[in-house]
Amino acid sequence: MRKKKNADSTKTLRIFFSSPFNGMEKEREQLTKSYFPQIHDMCNNRGYQFIPVDLRWGITKESTSSYQTIAICLNEINRSDIFVGMFGQRYGWNGIRDELLQSTFDYAQKTYPWLQKYRDRSVTELEFLHGHLNEVGAIPACFYFRDESYDDEQLKICREQGLIQRANAFRVESDKSKMMLTDLKKRIYDTKDKCLAVNMNYKTPVEAAQEIYETIFKYLTEIFFAKNSEEEDELSKELSLHDAFYINRLSLGDQYIESQQYLQIVNKHAYEIEAPLVVTGPSGSGKSALLANWLKNHLSKPQDGKTIVAYHFVASTAQNAKDALRIVTNLTNQLLKSQNLPLEEHNDIKSASKSFNKILTTLSKGNHRVIILIDGLDGIITKNKSERVLYWLPQITPSRVHLLLSCNINNEEIISELIEARRYQDLSIKPLKQEDIISLTRGMLKLRGKALSSNQMEVVLGQKQCRNPLYLKVMLEELSVHGKFETIDNRIEELLSCNQTEELFIQFLKRLEMDYNEDNSVNLVKDIMCYICIANKGLSESEILELLGLTSTQLSLIYYATKKYLTRQSTLLKFSYEELNRAIRKYYLNGPSLQKYYDALIDYFTTKLKPNASSQLVSTSVPRIASELPYLLAMSNKLDQLADCVCNIHVFEWMATNIPIDLVDYWHKTKLEAEDLSKKLEISVKNELATVYADCYDTYSAPSEAITKIENTLQVISEFLSTVAQYESKEYFAKWRIRLIKSLLKQYNQSEDESESLADAIMGLSISYFDTDKFDLAEDLYLQAQKIFTRIDNSIQVARTLTGLGLLNFKKMHYEKAEEYISQAIEIHKAKPDGHEYSDSINNLACVYMQTNKYVEAEALLQKSLKIYEEFYYGLQNLSICGSYNNLARCYRNLGQLDKAEIYYKKALDGRLILVKSAHPDIAESHMNIGTFEMINKKNFVAAKDHFTKAFDIYMATFNDDNIQIALVSENLALVNMYQKDLDEGVKYFERASEILYAMDQMRNSLPQLNSAYVEYYVNNQQWDKIRALIKRVRHNSRCPDRNFAILDWIDKGMPDGHRPLESLTALDIGFHFYGEKSNKTVELYMDMLLKTYDSKFRSNVRDYCSQALEYFENNFSLQEVNVAKVYEILAASYSSSKQENDIKQFLHYVDKAVAIFKTTEQWSQANASLYAFTVDYYLNNNLLDQARCLLSKITGTECSSGRDYAALEWLDNQLPEDERPRRPSSQTIDAGLQKHPDNLMLISRKIADYVPSMEKIISMLQRAGDIPTSHFTTVYDVICRDFPRCRQAAIQILQAGLQKYPNSPDILCILAPTLASYKQYDDAASYYRHLVTALPNNPSLKYSYGKVMLLQNKLDEGKSQLEEALQVAQSSNDEAIAAQIQSTLTDLVAWMTKES
Question: Between 20 and 30 A from 902 (CA), which of 234, 808, 855, 1118?
Answer without folding.
Answer: 808
